[in-house]
């Protein structure tokens, strides 16, 4: 694969190179996960809290070449207020209410001016980044052996339940392609060279709710494109606002394992086991059992405060309980029974407005 050489002067020090990279970087922020909730004002307040936090980054977003926000109805007054909070001009791209999460990522990228931008950073409006998130995400691009893609670390809050759910939802598997690389990434915290994302952008996947980035990770690995893992680029994902929505999320994620199983089987299983990709509920059940074992082993290995004694036992019970719920969704979906409103699964929005400040 042909890549462009760095536009930064070879003799500059690391900080200068980093600032130069920021000057050639676009930030794409999608707001799909703010659609759920009481009203548009609630979504706007959540977005304002996030932009105020982003404006305090150690590498300020004002230094970026471009900042794109996708939305489905911010009025001119709201847009002006957000620009004032960000301390810079923002490019707003309006999408319709049926545009899905990953489609919004692609649409946001299409608005990036590639004449100015060599890199693109993707973030979500329902995640709260640490103060040096942006800097740490771009640092690998300033190295001599710069990668084509960088994945940051996403987690839930460092509580018993948050640690348990992080072990289920945000796994990072070492890649054989390069030391310090990961096989997978999450679309809420990742950066690419623009030409790399243009080539491998998110594909439409029928009946899958939130696994497109996992499939893209498999395609990148098959193409020999290493995704460097930057654990210091940490962002904290909100949980849905209500317990009912948490259960709904588990059900949808469990159903996703059915659509994801054929891709996993093709990538990792020998030829004589390829039948698992079309085995109804059997393949997804195997995937869920394997995930349960990995999630239990991942506790206290996620760069979160360690859990000891009863807290660790509690986290293990949460992992088991939530995994059983996910597995139920996987088995039911694998039997051909609809899990939720699958025809609208991509655009279906939960409510993520917890104030983490």
UniProtKB/TrEMBL annotation:
Domain of life: Bacteria
Keywords: Cell inner membrane, Cell membrane, Membrane
One Pfam family it belongs to: Glycos_transf_2
Residue stretches making up the Glycosyltransferase 2-like domain: 94-205
Entry annotated with the keyword Oxidoreductase: no
Keyword Iron applies: no
Record protein name field: Glycosyltransferase family 2 protein
Organism of derivation: Pseudomonas idahonensis
């Amino acid at each position: 694969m042909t890549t462009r050489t760095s536009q930064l002067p070879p003799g500059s020090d690391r900080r200068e190179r980093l600032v130069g990279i920021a000057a050639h970087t676009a930030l794409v922020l999608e707001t799909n996960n703010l659609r759920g909730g009481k009203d548009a004002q609630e979504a706007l307040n959540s977005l304002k809290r996030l932009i105020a936090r982003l404006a305090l980054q150690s590498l300020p977003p004002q230094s970026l070449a471009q900042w794109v926000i996708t939305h489905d109805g911010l009025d001119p007054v709201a847009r002006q207020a957000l620009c004032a909070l960000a301390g810079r001009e923002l490019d707003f791209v309006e999408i319709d209410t049926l545009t899905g999460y990953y489609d919004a990522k692609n649409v946001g990228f299409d608005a990036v001016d590639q004449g100015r931008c060599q890199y693109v950073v993707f973030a979500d409006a329902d995640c709260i980044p640490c103060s040096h998130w942006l800097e740490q995400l771009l640092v690998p691009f300033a190295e001599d052996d710069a990668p084509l893609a960088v994945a940051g670390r996403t987690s839930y809050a460092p509580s018993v339940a948050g640690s348990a759910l992080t072990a289920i939802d945000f796994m990072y598997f070492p890649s054989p392609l390069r030391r310090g690389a990961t096989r997978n990434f999450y679309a809420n915290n990742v950066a690419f060279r623009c030409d790399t994302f243009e080539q491998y952008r998110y594909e439409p996947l029928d009946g899958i709710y939130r696994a497109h980035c996992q499939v893209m990770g498999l395609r990148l690995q098959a193409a020999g494109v290493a995704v460097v893992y930057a654990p210091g680029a940490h962002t904290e994902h909100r949980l849905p606002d209500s317990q009912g929505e948490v259960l709904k999320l588990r059900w949808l994620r469990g159903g996703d394992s059915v659509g994801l199983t054929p891709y996993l089987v093709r990538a990792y299983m020998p030829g004589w086991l390829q039948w698992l990709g079309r085995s109804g509920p059997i393949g997804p059940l195997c995937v869920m059992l394997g995930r349960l074992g990995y999630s239990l082993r991942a506790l206290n290995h996620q760069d979160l405060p360690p859990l000891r004694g009863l807290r660790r036992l509690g986290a293990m019970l949460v992992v088991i309980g939530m995994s059983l719920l996910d597995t139920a969704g996987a088995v039911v979906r694998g039997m051909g029974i609809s899990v939720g409103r699958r025809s609208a699964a991509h655009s279906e929005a939960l409510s993520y407005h917890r104030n983490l400040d």
